[in-house]
Amino acid sequence: MMLRRQALAIGSVLLSAITLGGWTLFKQKGKGPLLLSARDDNDGKHYAVGYRLDGKQVFATQVGQRCHDIINHPTLPIALFVARRPGTESYLIDLRDGALLQTITSNANRHFYGHAVIHKSGDWLYATENDTSDPGRGLLGVYKFEGERLVHSGEISTHGIGPHQVSWMPDGETLVVANGGIRTEAESRVEMNLNAMEPSLVLMQRDGTLLSKETLPQQMNSVRHMGIASDGTILAGQQFMGPSHERSELLAIKRPGQPFVAFPVADEQLQAMGHYTASVAVHSELRLVALTAPRGNRFFIWDMDTAQLRLDGPLPDCAGVGAVADGFVVTSGQGRCRFYNCRQEQLLAKPLELPAGLWDNHLHLI
After folding, report:
1. The whole model's pTM is what?
2. Who contacts 267 (Cβ-Cβ below 8 Å, separation ≥6)?
């Protein structure tokens, strides 16, 4: 470990050449993409895992708290497994062997919200966090990479309440934040303000400057997860916190230069979602958007431009979804993981040789 840290300190130019070369070789050794996700075992223990899509396990590292989303470093073979709300520990993992490099603990009166992004320079990480001294006040914790370690550097406002997912726009400099709009206290998932929710979609600069803030008509429709297309189109999935008999729009879209509005989803699909969506993924080349609805045990794919429904399929406790070259990979909390080939008129599903069940609501593919 000491030798590796000394090597990482020899200079940024040489560092990039050495680590990027090694990382490229590491990625090429496996068959297909590396799938990263959080997963539990039958005893309720929590793991940060990495698998090839052919079923080969790269690592399964036990961690203290349940994780949610994962983000990898652009040049180093490391990734951060981010604590699920209201977790206080996130884990920096070596993707080559699963070694736990660092446990990042949130500052006092803060907890993580499950998502983060790393700047394309590889120097900065931004994580959605809650200010529990002013419950729900949305923050991005700012962390700086020092070799294979993260150091807290500051925080900036998300201009909203209860931030959930944060993503990059295609320019790699503009941040988009899904503010869920729900206040929660420390160590709690109990909603405090359902009658006064303030969900919003925010575009902001890295220094915290607000560029835009938009809302949907239904106040109790919590904006949670996003997929970003290469042209800057934003797709956002919602979780409706209102009465069960009310109709709620659970997928929204913001096209470049246009307002944030509901994506046209038929009533049949909205009713099947059970007022809850989990994970959103965009396939920019095929112009498709995929959505998991675990409470409804349904998986959906639409044409992003025409809103044509391409797939409405049963999938028990469907969880994370991510785009690959020919379609989408989907995990499940109860059943088999699947690959959906989307290059044909009739979308074909193929079970994957991955462990069945107990997967978290997100996956990350490298």
Report:
1. 0.91
2. 247
